[in-house]
Description:
Elements lengths: L13 H5 L12 E6 L9 H8 L2 H4 L2 E6 L7 H6 L5 E4 L1 H9 L4 E8 L4 E6 L7 H6 L3 E4 L4 H10 L5 E4 L5 H5 L4 E5 L3 H7 L4 E5 L9 E7 H6 L1 H20 L2 H10 L5 H16 L13 H13 L19
Parallel strand pairs: 1-2, 1-3, 6-7, 6-8
Antiparallel strand pairs: 3-10, 4-10, 5-8, 5-9
Helix pairs in contact: 2-11, 2-12
Amino acid sequence: MKPLQTLLLCAMVLLPVACSDSGSSENAGHTQVRVQLNWVPEPEFGGFYAAEAGGSFRNAGLNVQLIPGAVNTPAGQLVARGSVEIGVVSAEEVLTLTEQGAELVALFTTFQRSPFVLVVRADSPWQSLEELWRSKARAAVEPGLPWIAELDRKLGGHALELVPYSGQLAPFAAGAVDATQGFIASEPVQLRLQGIAVRTFSLGDSGYDPYAQVVVCSRAWLQAHTSEATAFVRALRAGWNVYNTDPRSTNAILAKLNPAMSREAMDIAAEVQLPLITAQGAGAAQVGWMTRERWATLGAQMLAAGKLKRAPADADALFVNLQ
């Protein structure tokens, strides 16, 4: 769900970032924590980079290495096999990997509300997701996504013609498709900067609203390093509070790491994602907080969509809220 031009960075500037703090004298004696991100440096990771740049991780006694990702980065598997201490994954991955035997624990969620959307032109006739779903429009969507089955279950199927999502915005810009899947801080922002006015329909508003950009560790690492995990979450929360208040200085850092995304795009992205990160509904006590109800609901939805063989035996075991 990201613009393809950002993928070009994966072979260029990202490796030095992964080891930028390793071995520095100011981190001597600090606990090493390798964090595998699931995408390149963009505002969806603003809190991580703000915590690094502002010294929150270092002040917590941690030597944190932020390792950028790319398409299909197996962050969850890397955590499960101990290649890194912490990873960023989707909530769906937590459930599927758990069913496969990986013992992952969610420590923090970046997004309280789903950042995933369907994008249409501003002058399109559809005024709701349900109208679009029942129309004969063409939408570029990755096949097999759980929310497709959930919407079909709720609305009794779809008339919408679903065509494969290529990762490029050209088909939408040219009018070859009427709608495209998107990430609120990516595709809609890029289209806006191309001069194409768009509207978005939130997939979270459909009732399929999993946590997104979930921070996980292995259960074994959490049990052995509870104090470090707690320090990491506190520092990350502090980083997000800084970024959400004023993202500009961190965006300057992100722009250097990811020149394929403009500063203007980053500033807009930070603004549009903010309400989804700071939402206080559904029992969220503070940034990053999670609830059993949300995890149990997701498990039931993924089971109904055929993405799980069985619902999680204990939703409480999937996550922990550290303060």
